[in-house]
Design goal:
By secondary structure, this protein is an all-alpha fold. The protein has 19 helices and 2 strands.
Length: 428
C-alpha cells in the first residue's frame, strides 16, 4: 500500500524550468527599453527631417535636385520614383510600429511644431525650475494666441502670394503677387510700430486672470450664511470641514497672488523681458528677407533683363541677394539692372535703414521702458487682489491675520497646507 502511494506521488516540478530566470527578465526589460528608445529617437528624426525638408523645399530651393546634381549627377532618374520611396518608408514604419502607433506617429510628425511649443517646451521649462524662463515663454506663447486671428489671416494671404511667386509664370498673376507681398511687408512694419506704442495685452492677462478668479471663485471663498456668524466652537463636524476648506481656498488664493507678484517683479528686473521684443524683431527681419526674395524672383520671371547675373539665378540666389541687400551689402552674382528692379531694391534698402535706425532704438528701448511701467501696474494690481483677499479673510472668518489663518490650517492638517507654506517661502 505504501509502495502504491509512493508511485502515485508526482515528481517534484522544476520551477526554474517553467519560469524565466531573473536574468532573462532583466534582459527582456532592457531589450524593451532599447526598442522604445530607438523608436522614439527615430520618431524625432523623422519629424525634424520632414519639417526641415518641407520648409527648404517650399521656401528655399529644390533640395532634391540640388543633392542629386551635386553628388549623383548621373542618377537624376531617381527623382522620378520619389513617391515610391515615400510609400516604402511609410510601409516600413507601419510594419515596425503597428497600426495603432502609426496613427500617433502621423499626428506627432504633422503637428510637430505645436508639440514642441505646447508640450516639449513647457516640460523643459519645468525641468529647469526657472520662473523667469517660464514667464518669458508664457508671454511669448500668449502673444502668439492673442494675435492668432490676425496672424492666421496674414499668413494665409502671404502663403497665397508667395505660392504664386514661386510656381506661377503668368504675367498677370505675378504682378499681383508682387503688390501683395510688398503691401504685407509695409503692414508688418506699421503694425510693429503701433504695437510698440499701444499697451501690451500680454501683461494685462495677469490682472484679468486674478480678478476673474476672485469673482468666479467667490462661492468657494465665502462661508455659507448659516455658519458665517457662528463661533467656531459651535460648528458641527460637516460645518467645520466646510469652514476649513473655504479658509484653505482663500489663503491659497492670497498666497498665489503674492507669489506671482514676487516672480513678476523678478522677471521685471531681469533681461528675459526683452525676449518678446527681440523675437519680434528677428521675425520681422526674416519676413522681410523672404518676402523680397519672392518679389525679386517674380520680377525675374516677368522680365529676365531686370537683373544682371553671372549665371542663371535660382530662388536661393534671390534669397541671398535679398539678405545682402538688407544688411546693405552688394553681391557680385546678381544685381538690379533696370528702373523697376532698382526701385524695389531701394525700397528694401530704405526698410533696412528704418529697421536698423528706428526699430532697433525706438521699438526695443521704448517697449522695454514701457514694459517696466506696465509691469508695475500689473504687479500692483495682483498685490491689491492679495490684500483684498486678506481683508476678506479677516472679516469673513474673524481671523486676525493671514499668518493666524495658516497656523489654523496647519493645526487641522489641511491637504494643501504644505503647498501654501511652499508658496509663502517664495514671497518677498
Amino acid at each position: 500500500m505504501t509502495q502504491e502511494l509512493a508511485n502515485r506521488v508526482e515528481p517534484p516540478v522544476d520551477k526554474s524550468a517553467s519560469k524565466p530566470s531573473k536574468i532573462s527578465l532583466l534582459k527582456t526589460k532592457e531589450e524593451m527599453e532599447v526598442g522604445d528608445y530607438l523608436r522614439n529617437y527615430s520618431l524625432e528624426i523623422l519629424a525634424i527631417f520632414f519639417w526641415v525638408y518641407t520648409i527648404a523645399k517650399v521656401f528655399v530651393f529644390d533640395i532634391d535636385s540640388w543633392l542629386i546634381s551635386s553628388f549623383l549627377p548621373d542618377y537624376g532618374w531617381i527623382l522620378s520614383f520619389k513617391l515610391i520611396y515615400i510609400l516604402a518608408l511609410a510601409s516600413f514604419v507601419w510594419l515596425w510600429v503597428g497600426t495603432r502607433n502609426v496613427i500617433i506617429w502621423f499626428l506627432y510628425i504633422t503637428f510637430y511644431p505645436l508639440v514642441i511649443l505646447l508640450i516639449k517646451l513647457p516640460f523643459y521649462i519645468f525641468k529647469q525650475r526657472s520662473w523667469l524662463l517660464a514667464f518669458a515663454t508664457f508671454n511669448a506663447i500668449a502673444s502668439f494666441f492673442t494675435n492668432l486671428k490676425y496672424g492666421l489671416i496674414f499668413t494665409t494671404i502671404f502663403l497665397a502670394a508667395f505660392s504664386i511667386a514661386m510656381f506661377s509664370h503668368s504675367t498677370y498673376l505675378l504682378p499681383v503677387a508682387i503688390v501683395i507681398l510688398l503691401t504685407l511687408v509695409l503692414v508688418a512694419y506699421v503694425k510693429s510700430f503701433l504695437s510698440a506704442l499701444k499697451p501690451t495685452v500680454i501683461f494685462q492677462i495677469y490682472t484679468k486672470f486674478f480678478k476673474g478668479v476672485r469673482k468666479l471663485g467667490h462661492t468657494s471663498f465665502a462661508l455659507d450664511a448659516e455658519i458665517r456668524n457662528l463661533p467656531i466652537e459651535n460648528l458641527e463636524p460637516k460645518q467645520l470641514e466646510k469652514w476649513n476648506t473655504s479658509l484653505q481656498t482663500s489663503v491659497l488664493f492670497n498666497r498665489f497672488c503674492l507669489f506671482t507678484a514676487t516672480k513678476l517683479r523678478d522677471y521685471q528686473r531681469s533681461e528675459w523681458r526683452m525676449i518678446p521684443s527681440i523675437f519680434g524683431l528677428l521675425l520681422l527681419i526674416a519676413f522681410t528677407v523672404i518676402s523680397f526674395s519672392a518679389v525679386y524672383f517674380s520680377l525675374y520671371k516677368v522680365n529676365v533683363n531686370l537683373f544682371s547675373f553671372t549665371q542663371e539665378p535660382s530662388l536661393f540666389t534671390f534669397l541671398y541677394f535679398s539678405f545682402n541687400n538688407l544688411i546693405l551689402n552688394s553681391t557680385l552674382e546678381i544685381a538690379a539692372s533696370m528702373v523697376l528692379s532698382q526701385s524695389v531694391y531701394m525700397l528694401q534698402a530704405s526698410l533696412s535703414f528704418l529697421l536698423v535706425v528706428i526699430v532697433a532704438t525706438l521699438y526695443i528701448s521704448h517697449r522695454a521702458q514701457k514694459s517696466i511701467s506696465e509691469l508695475d501696474e500689473v504687479i500692483s494690481g495682483v498685490e491689491e487682489e492679495a490684500k483684498s483677499m486678506e481683508n476678506f479673510i479677516q472679516e469673513e472668518y474673524k481671523i486676525e491675520s493671514i499668518t493666524v489663518a495658516m497656523e489654523r490650517l496647519k493645526e487641522v492638517q489641511s491637504g494643501l497646507v504644505q503647498f501654501i507654506y511652499w508658496l509663502s517661502k517664495g514671497i518677498r
